[in-house]
């Protein structure tokens, strides 16, 4: 029996160290996410009327600006990829059988792709001016 602190031995050598890249990504994306999330919370909750201002019109006004679309898109992508990498690490640590590990990670990756694609589509195809009953100052006459 090997000692508990002995390093994990792979069956085949690899040329890249994906775990190192995953570790570095978690640290860098975590720092960027702190800025993105606290900026998001500050603008949505501290400026203006606070939580009472958040409604469909508020989101429509924010997403009329490419800056806020990009901000929210970056926050969505980084949060999703950061969380996926964390769950992937947990699966690698706790799934004992190779087949279980494979299928859990495949389910994780499929869910990640679905959330990223749908979230990106919502951010970029959202058109608050499409409903004629809603009139906002940023909507131009059609």
From TrEMBL:
The chain crosses the membrane at residues 20-43, 106-126. The keyword Transmembrane applies. It is found in: Membrane. It holds the Pfam family Sdh_cyt. Signal peptide: none annotated. This is Succinate dehydrogenase hydrophobic membrane anchor subunit. It comes from Kineococcus endophyticus. CDD domains: SQR_TypeA_SdhD_like (cd03500). Its main location: membrane. The keyword Endoplasmic reticulum does not apply. Keywords: Heme, Iron, Membrane, Metal-binding, Transmembrane, Transmembrane helix.
